[in-house]
Every structure is written in structure tokens, then in C-alpha cells.
Design brief:
310 residues; single chain; alpha/beta; 9 helices; Rossmann fold; 2 domains; six-stranded mixed beta sheet
């Protein structure tokens, strides 16, 4: 094979792989629309939900997505992400429903152990309240199996009982892409159309489709402190502690979420193509490298999922 032909072959292989993932995602999104009466797409404004939204746009057309977008807002999200969320929903003509953890706190259904506690883990309460309010029978999420070991146990159609809980040993088989969507009253499904994607797939797809993202995903200057092996952004919610040195670094976020538990990584990557190259060399998952709340067993992903988390 000559040097000129090799990049062309690699490009064809990459596109073929992305085409297959896209087709699977579109198929699942259409299956949800056909199988459920009141589905919703969980939309945070993050890269994974934006990839899902792009596939939904291809599946149904702009302005024709047959289910609303739902976000559970902790009140501590990056404004760059929530502003982008609102803009993208408006561009697509999609219905956007936002429910706030702060409202659950006012109702007394969420109680923080102390004022500085992260609200991220408490999103499950607000989510279950939204499910009850709108009687959703399926929620489409952007979780991927490569993110975390508990998420690797998920089926694409993940059954939740009448308490909104996930029982990993009671999941239904999904042989030959056949999905059992039967529900009892009060039960619902969490559906994960990009389960089989990896972080690399996501970034290759973002590059290929020229998907716009919040600016936080690309290299920018930010004040941070080093804490427990992570770069913690210095904000009003996450101030520097006594003895910590505040430095300004060129960073980007591999994943975005609640400010109190999401950390950037040291990176000069300013384009999707550059992030693809960085991701190829990464040896730590995006959650392992950037999420403070995944470091403690009390807040483990599996425990949270059993309690109704995404």
C-alpha cells in the first residue's frame, strides 16, 4: 500500500465505523418513539447529549423531534453550558423542560448534609419527581459503557422499577437487537442509544459532523488548584483552600456537569481534530480524570444508579 492510499483507507474505515454507530443510534431513537407513549430525551447541553440530538435531528428532522428535551439543573451548572442548551433547543424548535434541584430543596425532598455539599448526587430525586409529574415512561440518556464500570453493566433499554430503581441482576436480554419494552404501571425505561460509542467515537463524530459545542470543551485559560490528583477550577462554589496555590493553566473539560464536582484537564487542544489525537493517547477514562464525586465509595455510580440516578 502506498503512502497516499493509507490515509484514505483509514478515513473510509473510520467513517464506516461511525456510520454503523449512527445508524444504530437512529434506530434506537425511532424505536423509543414507536414503543412508548411519553418519552423524553435527557439533554444537558454536554457533548454526548449533543451527539444524540444530532442523531435525533437526522432520525426525525429539524423541528420534528417527537419528544421533549428534559434537563435536571442543580443550579450549579456552568453558564456556558446552560446558555448553549437553551440556544440549541431553540434552533431545533424542540420543547425544553427544565426542573431544578433547588425546587426539590424548597419542597424538602432534598436535604443537603451541609451548604457546601455537591448537589450532583441529589439530581436523582428531582429526576424521579419530573418522571412522576409528566408520567414519562422512557428517558433517553447519553451514558456510554466505556465511561464507568457500573455503566458497562447497563442494557440499552434499562428497566427501572416503580421506585425508579435499577436492578442490575434483573435486566432483560437484548439478543439480536430485540428489545422487551413491556412495562407495569409506575415503571419506566432509561434508554441509552450511544451505549456502544466510546469517547473517541464521540469526538470523531463531532469532528465529522461539525457539531457545535460549549466553549468549555476546548482549550482556554482558567485558574485552578491541584487537589487529590485533579485540577479543581477556582470559582465561588469551589474556592481555593488554605495552603493551596492558585495557578492559571490552559485547560479543557472532557465532561461537563455540576461545577462542584467537575474538573478540567491540562490541554492545549483547541479543535475537535486535536482532541481526537489527545483521546487516542489517553489512558484514564473521562470520568476518572475529571469527576470528584466518583472518587468516593459512598457516592459510587452503581449506588447512585440503584437510587434512580441517570
Amino acid at each position: 500500500m502506498n503512502a497516499r492510499a493509507e490515509p484514505q483507507l483509514l478515513s473510509k474505515l473510520s467513517n464506516s465505523h461511525l456510520d454503523a454507530l449512527e445508524e444504530e443510534t437512529i434506530f434506537i431513537l425511532r424505536e423509543v418513539a414507536a414503543a412508548f407513549e411519553r418519552p423524553a430525551l435527557l439533554f444537558s447541553g454536554g457533548k454526548d447529549s449533543l451527539v444524540m440530538l444530532k442523531c435525533a435531528e437526522k432520525a426525525f428532522g429539524v423541528g420534528r423531534i417527537p419528544y421533549p428535551l428534559l434537563m435536571i439543573d442543580t443550579g450549579h451548572n456552568f453558564h456556558e453550558v446552560t446558555d448553549f442548551r437553551d440556544l440549541r433547543a431553540k434552533e431545533l424548535g424542540a420543547e425544553l423542560i427544565v426542573r431544578n434541584v433547588e425546587d426539590s430543596m424548597k419542597r424538602g425532598t432534598v436535604r443537603l448534609a451541609h451548604p457546601g455539599e455537591s448537589r450532583n448526587v441529589h439530581q436523582s430525586v428531582t429526576l424521579l419527581e419530573a418522571i412522576d409529574e409528566f408520567r414519562f415512561d422512557a428517558l433517553i440518556g447519553g451514558a456510554r459503557r466505556d465511561e464507568e464500570k457500573a455503566r458497562a453493566k447497563e442494557r440499552i433499554f434499562s428497566h427501572r422499577d416503580s421506585f425508579g430503581q435499577w436492578q442490575p441482576k434483573a435486566q432483560r436480554p437484548e439478543l439480536w437487537t430485540l428489545f422487551n419494552t413491556r412495562l407495569q404501571p409506575g415503571e419506566h425505561f432509561r434508554v441509552f442509544p450511544i451505549s456502544n460509542w466510546t469517547e473517541l467515537d464521540v469526538w470523531q463524530y463531532i469532528e465529522r459532523e461539525a457539531i457545535a459545542l460549549p466553549s468549555l470543551y476546548y482549550a482556554h485559560q482558567r485558574k485552578v488548584v491541584e487537589r487529590n490528583g485533579l485540577l479543581v477550577p477556582v470559582t465561588e462554589l469551589t474556592p481555593a483552600r488554605d495552603g493551596e496555590e492558585v495557578v492559571e493553566k490552559t485547560v479543557r473539560f472532557r465532561t461537563v456537569g455540576d461545577i462542584t464536582c467537575t474538573c478540567p484537564v491540562d490541554s492545549p487542544a483547541a479543535t475537535a481534530a486535536e482532541i481526537v489525537i489527545e483521546t487516542l493517547a489517553a489512558d484514564v477514562s473521562e470520568r476518572g480524570a475529571t469527576r470528584m464525586d466518583d472518587k468516593t465509595s459512598d457516592a459510587s455510580m452503581e449506588k447512585r444508579k440503584k437510587d434512580g440516578y441517570f
